[in-house]
Amino acid sequence: MTYPNTDFAFTYLTTSFTLGITKGFLTRRLLKRRLPKSADRRNIFNSIQKTIKQAILMVMMVCFIVPQTQAQSSLSPERLSAVLAVINMLLLSGRPEPIDPPEGTPIPIELSELLSGSFEVTQDQPIYGQFDLQEEGVEFCFDLSSNDSFSPNDVLVEVNGRAAQAVQGKDNCYQISEPQQRLINYISIRARNGVVLTVSRVELASTEQRFGELNKLTRGEWSERAVRKVLNVFAFGGHARTEQILLWAEMDPEQAIQEMLNFQQHNLLLSPLAEGERYTETATQHGTLEEYAAFLSSPDSDIAIPVTGTVGENDFNIRRRGFATDGNSFDDAFGRMITVRGLNPFRQRIGFWETNYHLAVNRDVGVSGPQVARYYDVIMQAHEEGLPYEQVMGEAAKSAAIAQQYGHRRNQWIESRQECRCNDDFAREIHQLFYGIFGEDDPNHEDGTIRETAKMLTDMPILDDDSSDDGLVVNFGTSLHHIPDLTILGQTVSGANASEKIDNLMRISIEHPESLKNLPVMIISVLADDNMNESKARELRESWASMGNNKNLLRFLQAYAISDLFHSSSQFKYFTTHERALYMANKNNIDNLEAWFGGGSHNGGRAGRSVGGTISDENAGDFFRPLANVFGGQTSIEASDSALVFELNYNTLTDDEQEMRDIVGCDGCDGTGEEPWEKKWHTVLPQREDGEFYVSDVAEWLWNHAVGNFDNYTELERAQLYTWLAAARSLPGNNNDQNTVFDFNLLMCLVEDYERKESGEDDFDLSFANLMTNNVYNDYCINNDRDAGFDGYSPQEREAINRVYTGQDIADNPLIQSLLTQMGEATLPLLSDNSILRQRARERVNNTLGFIFTTPFVFAEGE
Amino acid sequence: MNNINNNRRRFLQSAFYSSLLYGAGSLPNIISNTGAMPQPLNSRVLANLYLNGGPDMRHLVVPAYDATPNSYGNEYWKNRYRSHQLTSDESTWQARWENDYYPITVGGQNWNGGLVDSNGLNSQVTFGIWREAGWLIDMFRAGNVALIFNAVGGTNRAHDLSTLMLEQGNLFSTLSQSTRSGWGGRLARSAGGNSVSLISSPRPFTFGPVGAAPNYNPNAIDNVDLLSVENAREIGLYDFDIERQQLGNRDETMARAAKSYYAGLRQERIARVYTKFLDHESTIRQFGEAIQQRLDSVPTPLLIDALRNEVPGINLDPNNNNPRRVLRSTGFARQISNLYDLLVSSDLVPASVMSMEYGGWDSHGSQRQGVSASTDDPNNPNISRGIENGLKDIFGGQFGGNPSDSSAPHSGFSALWASLPSSADRQKVVLTIAGEFGRQIRDNGDAGTDHGKGNLMFVIGEQCRGGIYGQIFPNEEIERFQDVSQRTPDIDPRTDIDTFYSQVCNFIQPGSGSIVFPRTAGGFSGEAPRIERVGMFNNLFS
Questions:
Q1: What is the pLDDT, as a whole number, of residue A312?
Q2: For residues B398, B402, B404 and B406, what is the CA-based torsion angle, rounded to 10 degrees?
Q3: Long-range CB pairs of B514-521, under 8 A, 24+ apart, other chains included
Q4: Which pTM was predicted?
């Protein structure tokens, strides 16, 4: 190849160098965020050193090469090659020295390559991945499996000769920043003696991947924890099974997020039916709010709750008729739509935000339940069809609910008098609330845009006839509409009626500078991040703008949900009362009967966790009755700053703890009249090969299930959870067997009193099993221990009951550690033949979950 | 599987370190010793009522009807009759004025000689206060109400932005600055008392600054002295009773576990996002125990109880003589009750600032409703009357020995004022009442009013020098009524809130005004706050 003239060669060289230096600089800037803590001064030093060398090279080029290229009519390929070789040599001279390949079978791999084969690894047959120096940070990942059980300690991984630490959350991914790379890099995998491992899905990928113009999590960063975080924030926790969560964690995040977050009416991965589910219709039907409310309230549906009648008549305390869109419990129907399985809690999460926050309407100001339901469905149907966001908002703006809410259904243009008999309420908020357009720096906003928008919103009465759409749609007229063009947001808006003008305005609004600046930030600030800052806002705006003239909310949210922006340590989100109530219900409920009942009772038994009760108790404003009217419902900050919200949650879970305990079984709740309904914890809790449910496994599962990570699962939490699950009085053959439970403090009071009084006796036995027997608990740490001379508890007992234990206290106490070990090895008789024991076990599981719900860690997500 | 995390928490080693943490301690200003019976108010208190939605105070205070064309009193009614649910027939305007408004002429009829007309701006101007706002009328005549006209707390007609400006006390706030402190929180910090929210979700007004006065950082939030009390008589965490058998009561078992857990957790360091819940637990536990002991011996006064409950002899239904609650809004009634409870417990929780809220003022359509029903039975709380419900709840009732309507049942502040144990207590309480913006001077085609800017705001207290501050009905508005080229005319903002709220701050805590509102500080180099007449608030408090 020859270069036809010196100008081209000159341009090539200078551009190459400039780009090289710039790219190196930018890459390093980006990598700074990703460097592990140990990526260290050495790397920084290398980086600086390299930059200096590049600068020297630039000078060399200017001094020596450029004059030559300009002096000659052409630069031969040989000469160019020689020049570049010199440059490369200089650029790479700061690299760590090459090392010898490790032992084993080499597996060469290129950037962005995912190998399809698998490789067997033993102590004598190690393997190593091999790849050349890349211009960016890379992540090397692989999957590990074995026919035998193995622990992380059975695997030895070295990166370029050094033992390496995997990315947190994923055991088998290793990131190597660009400065850390050598000319040839080796990642060796070796098994300890006797272990045979299979390595598969070997992959080399860049650490700087983008999706939706946001930095995407790598395969190593995308983990179970990340998946759970997405579900917690974007799906009220979701209903996905543990196996599905782990599957998503193993998938490419881009692929996983499309399965997790989409607008289909039914997402059976996110919301699968429970094993043996009796109520299966929701997996294929009733996916809109109108349909769902109709189904819930219909006498034709098979839900075993009376439709009408006097409450108490059949010992049910709820009636389904109220769940209709025009019923007095329509808001409860929506709560049940989010907690039922077979639908799509993400769709409802966004629907809730759209109709209660972003595009809020309020039943307290006269918007009817049927109008709300239609409004909800119109918006979500538009999302489901993948319409650009401005079209979704156009559908909302043209709805009967909005016309009712803001009153412009009465707005009229009187042509003969050139008079607008209008209010300008929605004329303002269609800009401000829908798009974030305040008219900053626009002197014509108040007197121009808003007044003209009011004219646009004329002749929009709500249909008033006897059709099925009566009261539910706007009848766009022309006789009282301002038909001529209007100037809104500085642009001409045309249309024969309000509908056409709204459609045309939406196209203008979505691209308005204030909208581009504010709307993406508004979306994420409410949905996902209470710690927004300008830097994050800038990234969000870039992502939003990158969608050009097809701004799609789903794509934006998917990109954000797998971005390092969302998964950064600076993101946190406090849960509103609604979010927490729904989250707790989703974490408790297993089958659809629980969603239907929602804490309701029958024959003295109950099922399901109440949502509406929590919202009502905490004065958070029912669904579709947002506290701040069109400005939306209770905010995250309001909820978290409210001591009342905390207080009511705490008191409900303590004083009314039976609301958690009683919802594990119910005679006749399922309507069959044959078998009592039992909560199916056994279908989801971890079961070992011996068929038993071990307390240690169940405690961890429950914590992870309800909190989403183990950041705060310490000795303190372990002690409390184990005690709730394991410490129940043993009375074999008695109906009260395992019916009386201990908390950790009371257990320790028992232990200490028994030890104090019986230590040294022949039959002294501090085993956990013995403590739970009749011989011990009846005689120690008891009230009115008159033998010891106390009417109430003794001073030592009081001290033990009131003692404050820290995690360190628990960790440092051998006796407590021994007890915890024993309790962890205890099992829960969830599948016992004895129905009473099964019930006691379920109750203890629910009490444990209730305890977790009292902790701070269900009030927020992040950090 | 072992997911125990032993390394995430660092254990606190010293009390000093503990005191640095937001969630490690409890509310600093709770005093644990309790006594029976109401205690005298031992420091001055501001109660701020935020009128959410932008109230049309030109509905509460109106010009006298005047048949003279082009007069203010004619133009007002001509451009406002629809929002009063009147016809275009002027006789209905005159009847409304004569029947429903209590006339006061500055320097003349019903004008108390002690009232202020700042700078003589309104000499011989006649205005009317809606008669059902009896307590306001009586308090004004007694010289306890400063009516501040043409005031502005939010320069923008957008609810959320103007609200932020009003509550932060900063007319330059932008929506992206929601993490700034509120002026109530800053005042509380300056005064060394608590900032107390009487509603379930604390408003930004109550959010405190970071650091100690006077050198705190107003551009960040630390709510260490914020307490939210929606119901002082029920606040508290469920607890176990150690005098009872501990085994068997599972609710107490759960309470014991949770209490022990939180006490242990408080000794550890957890991520910042969770610490405020630790703080809530500690605060409610301490405060709840203390105030329960107090309020057990202090019954709710009947007048306050009657605001939301049926109390024999109060607000009788004319049809059957049965008692009815007084207020339309039971939520506001609860706030008044809470305010009373905290005022008589000020020795337990020294509160410098209390925050209240009343919504429903965004009256784009039908801002006056239920006319015929309310004419027949004006004290029926179940009639929807548009914004007049709120005006009556807040300002209705009576005060003093010669009330304008001695038959009026005590509404919100009226009941509070009548129930406070002593005159000395009332002397220490000041009320500020304002919405985020005013409304336009013309009504719209929907019998309502659209967003405006300037508005009437209130400072009320027995130490306040009552009267008129600013021009009640600016003459310039006459032209604007008539000039249709001005499509959205509103009340010109002439006085920024900084100028009079800083004086309120000085009353609560001398010297705090220029710290809470820095634009009022001597030597402030930025844009000075507007004021209609320089110095007109210098003697706002006697």
A1: 72
A2: 60
A3: B515/B186, B515/B190, B515/B213, B515/B214, B516/B169, B516/B183, B516/B186, B516/B187, B516/B190, B517/B169, B517/B183, B518/B218
A4: 0.89
Cβ separation B228–A644 shorter than 8 A: yes
Across B365-379, average pLDDT: 96
B-chain CB neighbours of A461 within 8 Å are: none
Among candidates A54, A31, A45, which has minimal Cα distance to A178? A31
- How far is B406 from B392, CA to CA, in rounded Å? 15
Residues contacting residue A815 through CB under 8 Å, at least 6 positions apart = A751, A766
Backbone angles phi, psi at A95, to 5 degrees: -70, 150
Q: Is the pLDDT of residue A38 over 50?
A: no
**What pLDDT, on the 0 to 100 scale, is given for residue B293?**
84
When pLDDT is cut at 50, 70 and 90, the band that residue A31 belongs to is very low
CA distance linking residue B369 with residue A67, whole number of Å: 88
Of B68, B147, B71, B72, nearest to B115 (Cα)? B147
Mapping DSSP onto H, E and C, the string for A414-472 reads EHHHCEEECCCHHHHHHHHHHHCCCCCCCCCHHHHHHHHHHHHCCCCCECCCCCCCCCC
**Residue-by-residue DSSP string for A359-413:** T---GGGT--HHHHHHHHHHHHHHHHTT--HHHHHHHHHTSHHHHHHH-GGG-EE
Q: Are A605 and A662 in contact (CB under 8 A)?
A: yes
CA atoms within 13 A on the CB side of A96: 15
The region of weakest confidence among A149-158, A271-280, B202-211 is A149-158
The pLDDT value recorded for residue B224 is 85
Tokens standing for A617? 């108790």
Among A83-97, A610-624, B494-508, name the one with the lowest average pLDDT.
Answer: A83-97
Strand partners, A105: A127
d(CA B167, CA B192): 20
Write the residue in A640, A714, A782 that is nearest to B9 by C-beta.
Answer: A714
String of b and e for B134-166 (b: at least 16 CB within 10 Å)? bbbbbbbbbbbbbbbbbbbbbebbbbbbbbbbb
Which of A714, A796, A825 has the highest number of chain B CBs within 10 A, making it the mutation to test binding with B? A714
Minimum mean pLDDT among A600-604, B63-67, B525-529: which range? A600-604
Write the CB contacts of A549 (distance below 8 Å, at least 6 apart in sequence).
Answer: A388, A511
Q: How far apart are the first and last CA of chain A?
A: 55
Asked whether the beta carbons of B504 and B485 are under 8 A apart, the reply is: no
CA-nearest of A588, A582, A591, A638 to A614 is A582
Q: How many residues does chain B have?
A: 542
pLDDT at A77 over 90: no
Quick: pLDDT tens for A404-419.
999 999 999 999 999 9
Q: What is the pLDDT of residue A84?
A: 56
Concatenated DSSP letters of A648-688:
HHHHHHHTTTHHHHTTEEETTTTS-SSS-EE--GGGTS---
Question: Per-residue pLDDT for A662 more than 90?
Answer: yes
β-pairing verdict for B429-435 and B351-359: unpaired
User: Quick one: pLDDT at residue A40?
Assistant: 40
Structural tokens at position A346: 């993400």
- Give the three-class secondary structure for A106: strand
Closest Cα to residue A375, out of A433, A426, A339, A325?
A: A325
Residue type, B504: V
Q: What is the pLDDT of residues A262-277, one digit of tens each?
A: 999 999 999 999 999 9
**What is the least distance, in Å, from the CA of A597 to any CA of chain B?**
23
Mean pLDDT of all residues belonging to chain A: 89
Mutate one of A440, A654, A655, A854 to test the B interface: name it (highest B CB count within 10 A): A654
Task: State the smallest CA–CA distance between residue B256 and chain A in angstroms.
Answer: 7
Give the integer Cα–Cα distance in Å for B201 and B228.
7
